[in-house]
Design brief:
Residues 600-681 form the Integrin beta subunit tail domain. It is found in: Cell membrane; Cell projection, Invadopodium membrane; Cell projection, Lamellipodium; Cell projection, Ruffle membrane. One of its GO terms (cellular component) is ruffle membrane. Residues 705-751 form the Integrin beta subunit cytoplasmic domain. The structure is a single chain. The chain is α+β, with helices and mostly antiparallel strands. The strands form 11 sheets. It has a 6-stranded mixed beta sheet, with no helix packed on it. A 6-stranded mixed beta sheet has the order 10-9-8-11-14-15, with helices on both faces. Strands 5-7-20-17-18 form a 5-stranded antiparallel beta sheet, with no helix packed on it. The protein is extended.
């Protein structure tokens, strides 16, 4: 290939002005980060080049932030790129308990079912940290069960069967655990509700006939949790039925107190079961208004002498409030209800995690089997939940369950069909976006629902680069100490701007500084492609990060060139490589003998342009071949070089062509039709249409004005005629009424 051909292959590859940067479409560029700390908070792919000589003319400080591969392509050494990564550290890692029934008895706090128990994470924005949790259902795990029973009159038969529940349930639960405790509580209804009673006598004995019933009450803690089944039988045997007149009961008040009054109930840090037994529905938040109670339930313990004392003061709790308190206190609920109310409580179960519904027989004779079945159902499923996440932090779960079952999404939080002694695991990804709360450490907790054990995770956020620690405050490199020199760039003090913090914010737009941003003393600042900051052009960023402006006056770009096979500059290599090798910028680089090619193509193909008068003399050195459209232009698959080009004529019309040298033959293929924004013939037509519309509008306006004048004159004439025909005297208005009223006192005798 001769020298002429080499130059042609090179120069036409960059004729449309290639930038020295070939940025990738990424979030790093879009962020406009002005410091290394801001850059690494954008995403895990972003790095910051600390090389002080890295930026080229026209590039802002934010150009230091880019994807790692792009930074290295642009000339930043890998050792000069700040790209910190997150990490994790396990702080407490007690192994899960391998315990069998009959072995040495352990205290509840010595039994471990989830591992590890405490971790510390360092989170880099956009980079997930993966932790693995193990869960093993321990054998012979202690159980606390509290039986909460509706003692309204319809439950009379049920009470008789429950009186022997203690010893019978103790015997049955001994098959599951050697450490079992049971308690008992009862409820009826708020005593202030208008439908409960109407007379003091009714309050004393709300039952009808000769039935002996106790006064209605909201909730009573009859027996604190105990391992003495005989004590349970004895105290429950002393209970009496009460009554009220409406079907829904006040059970939600009782559930709330059982959940929050841990000391009164005697809950331990073990499996906590609440059996709720009733044959009726329930009141919830808002129903208290029927009795004049408007204050919402406060979710606190109000037991005095084992009686709920604030039922007359606070409304029933809402379902959401109950869910919150039951979850906080690790209580699993078993609803033992009659067949009639199964649909209602099954809907309630769907709203309360780790709850179950069993069908209670008419006289509660099946209550033991119901409790055992419900417990087995609840304990065979583990569901992880987490506390409230800090702003910008997300968490995802993946569960690895029995038989190789893997679940993701919301199902990734749980595993089912777990038997005693089975082990499952969870992969948990925790990701931060940005730097929440200025980087202050946070903590979250993850726990299996219904269990008292939890995993504590400390979150630390990587908000600054390591090079930030070596920053030099008030550095001379930042214009007389107007900023901190860190990570290869100046971080300006408040009120200062510019690459070296050389300007005050209130002087960045002065006329003297703007002069330095005008090419050839023109009127356009930074070629209308950038902003003049402290007398230096900082080029605009395009919506597409692959497209960039560059140059001292932002006069160059890398997006106006044709691309072949998705390659810039006709597929002959990156324009930037030729740009640096030949030290040329934009169209100034075109060798003089070839600068006439676009004009020659224009005159030979369309008979226009600067060369149209001398076309035959100056433009006969190549063969011209016309094609119908751009798809018909040759593609760069030949053995000889081929360049794609486009030019715009004086009428803003584009024409497209290729230039190739095949041995000694020079060929130009050109699209035979111009691409114009609008043909010149359409302009007079559009102008005529617009003029016609305006004239029609004016005519309609004049007609409307004329009609209004005629209408007004007719109305005025009609008014004058009616005025002349008035039948009353003009000095007196017949509808006038005097404002004075005279009243004579009949008792007044004139004295």
């Amino acid at each position: 290939m001769d020298l002429k051909l080499l130059f042609m292959s090179t120069l036409f590859g960059i004729i449309c002005c290639s930038s020295a940067q070939q940025g990738n479409g990424n979030e790093c560029i879009k962020a406009n980060a002005l410091s290394c700390g801001e850059c690494i908070q954008v995403g895990a792919k972003c790095g910051w080049c600390t090389d002080t000589e890295f930026l080229k003319q026209g590039e802002p400080t934010s150009a230091r932030c880019d994807e790692l591969e792009s930074l290295m392509k642009r000339g930043c050494d890998a050792a000069r790129i700040e790209n910190p990564h997150g990490s994790q550290r396990i702080l407490k890692n007690k192994a899960v308990t391998n315990r069998k029934k009959g072995a040495e008895k352990l205290r509840p706090e010595d039994i471990t079912q989830i591992q590890p128990q405490k971790l510390s994470l360092n989170l880099r924005s956009g980079e997930p940290q993966n932790i693995k949790l193990r869960f093993k259902r321990a054998e012979d795990y202690p159980i606390d069960l509290y039986y909460l029973m509706d003692l309204s009159y319809s439950m009379k038969d049920d009470l008789e069967n429950v009186k022997n529940l203690g010893t019978s349930l103790m015997k049955e639960m001994s098959k599951i655990t050697s450490d079992f405790r049971i308690g008992f509580g009862s409820f009826v209804e708020k005593t202030v509700m208008p439908y409960i009673s109407t007379t003091p006598a009714k309050l004393l004995n709300p039952c009808t006939g000769d039935q002996n019933c106790t006064s209605p009450f909201s909730y009573k803690n009859v027996l604190k949790l105990t391992s003495n089944g005989h004590q349970f039988n004895s105290l429950v045997g002393q209970q009496q039925i009460s009554g009220n007149l409406d079907s829904p009961e006040g059970g939600f008040d009782a559930i709330m107190q059982v959940a929050v009054c841990g000391e009164h109930i005697g809950w331990r840090n073990v499996t906590r079961l609440l059996v709720f037994s009733t044959d009726a529905g329930f009141h919830f938040a808002g129903d208290g208004k029927l009795g004049g109670i408007v204050l919402p339930n406060d979710g606190r313990c109000h037991l005095e002498n084992n009686m709920y004392t604030m039922s007359h003061y606070y409304d029933y709790p809402s379902i959401a409030h109950l869910v919150q308190k039951l979850s906080e206190n690790n209580i699993q609920t078993i609803f033992a209800v009659t067949e009639e109310f199964q649909p209602v409580y099954k809907e309630l179960k769907n709203l309360i995690p780790k709850s179950a519904v069993g069908t209670l027989s008419a006289n509660s004779s099946n209550v033991i089997n119901l409790i055992v079945d419900a417990y087995n159902s609840l304990s065979s499923e583990v569901i992880l939940e987490n506390s409230k996440l800090p702003e910008g932090v997300t968490i995802t779960y993946q569960s690895h369950c029995k038989n190789g079952v893997v679940n993701e999404g919301e199902s990734g939080r749980k595993c089912s069909n777990i038997s005693i002694g089975d082990e499952v695991s969870f992969n948990i990804n925790i990701t931060a976006q940005g730097c929440p709360k200025q980087g202050k450490p946070e903590s979250i907790k993850i726990k299996p629902l219904g269990f008292t054990e939890e995993v504590e995770i400390l979150l630390n956020f990587i908000c600054e680069c390591d090079c930030h620690k070596q920053g030099i405050k008030n550095s001379d490199m930042c214009h007389n100490g107007n900023g901190t020199f860190e990570c290869g760039a100046c971080r300006c003090n408040k009120g200062r701007v510019g690459r070296q913090c050389e300007c005050r914010k209130d002087e960045v737009s002065t006329e003297d500084l703007d002069k330095n941003c005008r090419k050839d003393n023109g009127t356009d600042i930074c070629s209308n492609n950038g902003e003049c900051v402290c007398g230096t052009c900082e080029c605009k960023k395009r919506d597409n990060p692959e497209e960039r402006y560059s140059g001292k006056f932002c006069e160059c770009d890398n997006f106006n060139c044709d691309r072949s096979n998705n390659k810039l500059c006709g597929g002959t290599g990156t324009g930037s490589s030729f740009l640096f090798r030949l030290r040329i910028i934009c169209k100034q680089c075109i060798i003089t003998i070839y600068i006439s090619l676009p004009f020659c193509v224009q005159c030979r193909a369309f008979g226009t342009g600067e060369k149209k008068d001398t076309c035959e003399r100056d433009c006969s050195y190549f063969n011209l071949i016309k094609v119908k459209d751009r798809d018909k232009l040759p593609q760069p698959v030949q053995a000889f070089p081929l360049m794609h080009c486009k030019e715009r004529d004086a009428n803003d019309c584009w024409f497209y062509y290729t230039y190739a040298v095949n041995n000694t033959e020079k060929e130009v293929h050109v699209v035979e039709t111009l691409e114009c924004p609008a043909g010149p013939d359409i302009i007079p037509i559009v102008a005529g249409v617009v003029t016609g519309i305006v004239l029609i509008g004016l005519a309609l306006l004049l007609i409307w004005k004329l009609l209004m004048i005629i209408h007004d004159r007719r109305e005025f004439a009609k008014f004058e005629k009616e005025k002349m025909n008035a039948k009353w005297d003009t000095g007196e208005n017949p509808i006038y009424k005097s404002a004075v009223t005279t009243v004579i006192n009949p008792k007044y005798e004139g004295k």
